[in-house]
């Protein structure tokens, strides 16, 4: 009953992922024909079934739009009240200045001359100021998008009537100021008496004000007048025949047909039917992943937490892609899609990562504007990403992989563009910028690996390398309290890693497991022969008590592993490296002391579990052989060969390896590595004279 419920829960996870994905997909059907510019038409001869408009392509439409925006005349409001206020101010201030000058003159002839000419000077200056304001003085414009060439024309609104004026006729404040200063300087030179200095900035105020709102409204009206259509295709007209090359013109006609078809369908389609069809497609795609894990990767399938990772990450990428595709600012290629295969390949085999990658790009291909091109590019780029991090153990690998991803994006997109457009100049540089952005975002994979490790209980190669560091607290403690056991663990780790590489097992996992397999010995180090220097404490206690102490190093090790938060995959080496093997030395000792007694040999067995993988099997074999090799009376090629063969044979005959997925051929390779390593360790040396 529990198994059925568990299976139902797993199916429910994938069904929920399918429903969420369908809600994110465009709620419309797909056009019945796939086509690419520059390629031949691969379908049957296409005849128009109804009239439809041929829309202008984006470049033509953009050119017409830019032309209108460039040639649109800006609108300005004329402020007629400004002149009156300026003249009023000028009259009062000029009269005051003239009075002050007159009161300071002592020469009666100059005074008389000044009194006679002041009205004329004042009138000339007034007329000059009036001429500025009648022609108009521009307001300083802060809008950087508005550039008014001198040869262009503008609209000036006076009394709600817009009239066109050449822009060069309108004064700027600077131009008006310089002109009136020069004019006044010429006036001064005509008279012998001193004229007052005047700050003309007080009288040069702008009265032609830019009307941004009216200008934008005029632009909008002109833009609305642009026709998006360049022609019509009549019903019964042949659009394209099979094998005909899709040039620019045919591509635009086919794109227009697709646009018209989708708009007509959306207005009459049944939403429930569309949803049902999409659900069948999406659930079929997820079913491929589900069945693959069910049949070929039961280790993932049986762990709900790890199984959840696959639909969760796929849906997360689909959510991000759908959000980007919905708005018009960002390009879907900016989404760092290759993070998915990159991270999956960090935790699992490349083929699992590649299938996860393919499943997800098939889903996003429904969202992307050009589905085939998108799927093709991501298919290849994903393979490059997986190849770059199949064994991620250095941060630089992510950096180099990101660079390879960008290069692959660029090469594939350029090749497809040349095929489609027929010329290199058509390559869209903005696309390359999106590729670069996506490749840079791939660098976020490194911190995300740690996040997914903790959330879904994964174990990455980076973590295994960190765990194998002998400066880790628990390993330092082992080296201090049980130095012999520590040296034994290091030797087992070195030999096991070499054996794992030979048979294609995970060498980093084997090394980490071997380093920790005997940490329980630090609780009673003197009871283990590698830590003894003189007396053997087992000589002072009974055999059964010794057996309990020996067996306890496994349970103590498991407790220490839990205390130090070791991953389960690593702590499993502690409980599997002896499995349920007999503690033969003390069993023989007990039999000698209790001859004729009926002995329960189960009391002399470890209470561990059988090795369940190649990695745990390797450590069990190497641990036993390395420990036994220390007690050989002589180190010769024959003695080492016999030792390895006998110990491996005993493991097999005791059925200690029946749960591990290791073959006899692989066991033979492990034996060869063991023999070679032990011979190198215990090789004879030259005897030097005293």
Q: What report would you give on this structure?
A:
With 690 residues, this protein is mostly helical. The protein folds into three domains: 2-27 and 269-452, no CATH class; 70-223, no CATH class; 461-681, Hypothetical protein af1432, CATH 1.10.3210. Helix content is 62%, strand content 5%. The strands form three sheets. The chain has a four-stranded mixed β-sheet with strand order 5-4-3-6. A hairpin with a 2-residue loop joins β4 (153-158) and β5 (161-166). The radius of gyration is 44 Å and the shape is elongated.
CATH topology-level name of the largest domain:
Hypothetical protein af1432
CATH architecture of the largest domain: Orthogonal Bundle
Straight-line N-to-C gap: 78 Å
Query: Widest sheet: strand order?
Result: 5-4-3-6
Put the structure in a nutshell.
By secondary structure, the protein is mainly α. It has 26 helices and 8 strands.
Please give the structural blueprint:
Layout lengths: L1 H23 L21 E2 L4 E4 L2 H14 L3 E4 L2 H24 L3 H28 L17 E6 L2 E6 L6 H18 L17 E3 L1 H13 L4 E5 L4 E3 L7 H21 L2 H26 L1 H4 L2 H23 L12 H9 L2 H15 L6 H18 L6 H27 L7 H13 L3 H12 L4 H7 L5 H9 L1 H21 L3 H10 L26 H21 L4 H9 L7 H10 L20 H16 L7 H17 L10 H18 L9
Helix pairs in contact: 1-8, 1-10, 3-4, 4-5, 8-12, 10-12, 11-12, 11-13, 11-16, 12-13, 13-14, 14-15, 17-20, 18-19, 19-20, 19-24, 19-26, 20-22, 20-24, 21-22, 21-23, 24-25, 24-26, 25-26
């Amino acid at each position: 009953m529990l198994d059925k419920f568990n299976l139902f829960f797993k199916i429910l996870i994938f069904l929920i992922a399918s429903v969420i994905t369908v809600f994110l997909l465009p709620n419309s059907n797909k056009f019945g024909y796939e086509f690419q510019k520059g390629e031949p038409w691969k379908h049957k001869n296409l005849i128009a079934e109804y009239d439809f408009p041929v829309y202008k392509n984006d470049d033509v439409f953009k050119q017409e739009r830019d032309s209108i925006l460039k040639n649109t005349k800006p609108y300005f409001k004329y402020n007629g009240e400004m002149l009156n206020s300026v003249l009023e101010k000028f009259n009062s201030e000029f009269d005051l200045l003239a009075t002050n000058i007159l009161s300071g003159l002592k020469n009666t002839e100059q005074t008389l001359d000044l009194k006679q000419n002041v009205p004329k000077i004042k009138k000339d200056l007034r007329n000059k100021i009036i001429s500025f304001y009648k022609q108009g003085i521009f307001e300083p414009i802060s809008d950087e998008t508005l550039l008014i060439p001198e040869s262009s024309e503008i609209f000036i609104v006076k009394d709600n009537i817009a009239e066109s004026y050449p822009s060069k006729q309108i004064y700027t404040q600077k131009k008006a100021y310089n002109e009136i200063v020069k004019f006044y300087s010429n006036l001064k030179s005509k008279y012998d008496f001193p004229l007052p200095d005047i700050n003309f900035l007080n009288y040069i105020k702008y009265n032609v004000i830019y009307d941004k709102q009216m200008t934008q409204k005029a632009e909008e009206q002109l833009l609305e007048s642009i026709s998006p259509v360049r022609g019509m295709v009549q019903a019964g007209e042949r659009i394209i025949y099979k094998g005909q090359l899709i040039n620019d013109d045919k591509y635009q006609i086919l794109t227009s047909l697709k646009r018209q078809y989708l708009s007509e369908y959306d207005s009459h389609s049944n939403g429930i039917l569309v949803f049902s069809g999409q659900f069948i497609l999406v659930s079929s795609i997820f079913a491929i992943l589900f069945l693959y894990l069910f049949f070929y990767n039961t280790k993932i399938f049986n762990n709900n937490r790890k199984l959840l990772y696959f639909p969760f990450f796929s849906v997360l990428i689909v959510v991000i892609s759908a959000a980007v595709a919905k708005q018009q600012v960002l390009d879907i290629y900016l989404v760092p899609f290759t993070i998915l295969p990159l991270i999956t390949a960090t935790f699992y085999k490349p083929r699992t990562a590649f299938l996860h990658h393919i499943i997800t790009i098939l889903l996003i291909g429904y969202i992307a504007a050009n589905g085939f091109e998108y799927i093709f590019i991501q298919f290849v780029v994903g393979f490059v990403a997986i190849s770059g991090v199949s064994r991620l153990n250095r941060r630089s690998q992510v950096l180099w992989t990101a660079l390879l991803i960008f290069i692959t994006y660029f090469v594939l997109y350029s090749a497809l563009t040349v095929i489609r457009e027929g010329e290199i100049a058509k390559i869209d540089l903005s696309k390359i910028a999106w590729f670069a952005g996506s490749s840079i975002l791939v660098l976020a994979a490194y911190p995300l690996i740690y996040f997914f490790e903790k959330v879904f209980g994964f174990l990455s190669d980076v973590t295994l390398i960190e765990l194998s560091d002998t400066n880790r607290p628990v390993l330092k403690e082992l080296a201090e309290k049980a130095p012999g056991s520590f040296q034994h663990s290091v030797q087992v780790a070195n030999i096991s890693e070499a054996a794992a590489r030979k048979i294609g097992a995970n060498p980093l996992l084997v090394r980490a497991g071997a380093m920790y397999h005997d940490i329980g010995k630090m609780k009673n180090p003197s009871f283990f022969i590698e830590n003894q220097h003189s007396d053997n404490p087992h000589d002072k206690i009974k055999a059964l008590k010794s057996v309990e102490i020996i067996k306890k190093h496994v349970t103590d090790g498991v407790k220490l592993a839990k205390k130090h938060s070791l991953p389960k995959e690593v702590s499993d080496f502690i409980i599997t490296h002896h499995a349920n093997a007999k503690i033969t030395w003390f069993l023989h000792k007990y039999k000698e002391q209790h001859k004729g007694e009926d002995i329960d040999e189960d009391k002399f067995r470890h209470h561990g579990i059988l090795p369940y993988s190649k990695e745990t099997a390797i450590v069990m074999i190497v641990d036993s052989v390395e420990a036994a090799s220390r007690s050989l009376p002589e180190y010769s090629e024959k003695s080492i060969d016999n030792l390895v063969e006998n110990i491996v044979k005993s493991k097999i005959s005791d059925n200690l390896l029946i749960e591990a997925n290791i073959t006899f051929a692989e066991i033979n390779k492990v034996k060869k590595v063991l023999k070679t390593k032990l011979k190198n360790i215990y090789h004879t040396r030259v005897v030097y004279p005293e």
